[in-house]
Amino acid sequence: MAARAAMRIERFSHQSAWRHVAPSAKGIFTLSGLCAAFLAASVAAAAGVALTFAFLTLAVARIAWRSYLLILAPALFFLVLSAFSIALSITWGESWRDVSLSFPAEQLKQATLVCTRSLACLCSLLFLPLTTPLGDLMALLRRLRTPELLIDIMVLGYRSLFVFAQVVSATRTAQIARLGYINTQRALRSLGILIAHTTLHLWQRAEQLHAAAQARSGEGPLRFADQTFPHAGRDGLIALLAGASLNIVVVIAG
User: Fold this and answer.
1) Which string of b and e fits 127-166 if b means at least 16 CB within 10 Å?
2) Is 6 in contact with 161 (CB distance < 8 Å)?
């Protein structure tokens, strides 16, 4: 699931209408959205931040809403579980039969606020990778003086997701062609072979990466072809003004 989500995010980042907007401007606006989510003191203000970034991602950046919901789904699942645990109150009696479950109004209000603020943070953070390819993000991180080792680990981990998805897809397609999932017994056997083959292949790829790093003495960071953004200053100023306006509105509404 994580590999499929990463593939969708990378594909949409290259197809986004905001692909050629400076990453620094999008980073500033994303940071402004996070600040606005933390400043939101009411459910309406937090929901407004979430809807603002969802609208910009779907309508302005032209991301397909079904794929957007699929990317959001895993995080929303854990968010709902967390809100449920906050809202639920358990009263213990003298025996297990006296246990009662309730949703007090104060806890329900608190759970709703936490849920909407978390959703606003999620929509704000998702706005950046859905509109900015990995290469541009890495260039932005380098300008922010992020340690090169951390950037290399991020790139290799991100790349491993695509390798994992490719290996699983190719192996499973071959197994289906040989009727490997025709019944329960063969399905379990095919699943075991799939896990073993994937583990072995990823281990071999890791060894190849290690050998490549040793061949260049493990020196020098991984490089990408940096794209130029001639209107970076203008984009950054617009993002700063828009982010400040969003925070002012949230404070007033809260």
Assistant:
1) bbbbbbbbbbbbbbbbeeeeeeeebeebbeeeebbeebee
2) yes
Q: Cα 142 from chain centroid? A: 20
Place of tokens 């003298």: 94
Residues 6 or more apart in contact with residue 24 via CB below 8 angstroms: 140, 143, 232, 235, 236
- Return the percentage of the chain with pLDDT > 90, whole number: 22
Cα of 164 vs its chain's centroid, Å: 18
Q: How many CB atoms lie within 10 A of CB 21?
A: 23
Strand segments (E) across the chain = 89-91, 100-102
Instruction: Convert the pLDDT of each residue in 90-100 to its tens digit.
Output: 777 666 666 77
